[in-house]
Amino acid sequence: MISPLACVSPDAKLGKNVEVMPFAYIEGDVEIGDNCVIHPYVSVLSGTRMGANNKVYQHAVLGSEPQDFHYTPGTKTQLIIGDNNAIRENVVIARSIHEGKATQIGNGNFIMDKVHICHDAKVGNECVLGINVCIAGDCEIQDNSIQSSGAVVQQHVRVGRFSLIQSGCRVQKDVPPYVILGGNPAGYHGINAVVLRHVNVSERILRHIANTYRLVYTGNFSLQDAVIKIGEQIPMSSEIENIVNFIKDSKHGIVRPVNPADL
After folding, report:
1. Orientation of helix 238-249 relative to helix 203-218, angle to 10°
2. What are the tens digits of pLDDT across the range 230-255?
3. pLDDT tens per residue across span 59-97
4. Is the dihedral of CA 94, 97, 100, 102 positive or negative?
5. Model pLDDT, residue 262
6. In angstroms, rounded to a whole number, what is the distance separating the alpha carbons of residues 119 and 208?
7. From CA 247, how far away is CA 61, in angstroms rounded?
């Protein structure tokens, strides 16, 4: 299922039922899992490891050299992609800058047109990256998060699970789980209740999450004191524990500006 008009290195390893369409370019030191579809004009470059059932659309570039001054050309680095991802047109995903390390994309992600994912970023499972989203180097995008079109996530930022970053936001600090972030400067706009209800989070837990973020954003406490108050006032659950641990693990702080009208 490899078009004679495609350029595929004999050193590349392709799984069963892989379809490579005309004018695709696949270098050596590439592994592509079963049932993947590589559309025309896709470039899959050395160091890329791809799982099964992925679809890569026109003009995407996977495993590009990092656009970073710390990268030494020729360094053996990787891009590791899981299963069941849709990688749409004009997407660019770079390899790591560090020998033996990798940029990582999980499973079931929908990565839309013109997304750029830079070196050493980690994207979890079932995330949505909207049109023209830019994920800078060393970022961590946790499971089930949504980055709307034109969002820019700056270097070293973590984005928590089930969070929603609205269109055009520039994010400079960590985005806690389950929140909606909007505006510039980016601010807290409530919890991502619609999506959480869709995955069967109960109304009781939704109230606890909302009350947790009221303590964080409107309680007139330091972040450290807010974490203490959460432990004293909010019934513990896996969701609340996830919020607390995320805040405690933050090295650069969380997004703090708040829009009172949305609370």
Report:
1. 30
2. 999 999 999 999 999 999 999 989 99
3. 999 999 999 999 999 899 999 999 999 999 999 999 999
4. negative
5. 47
6. 36
7. 35
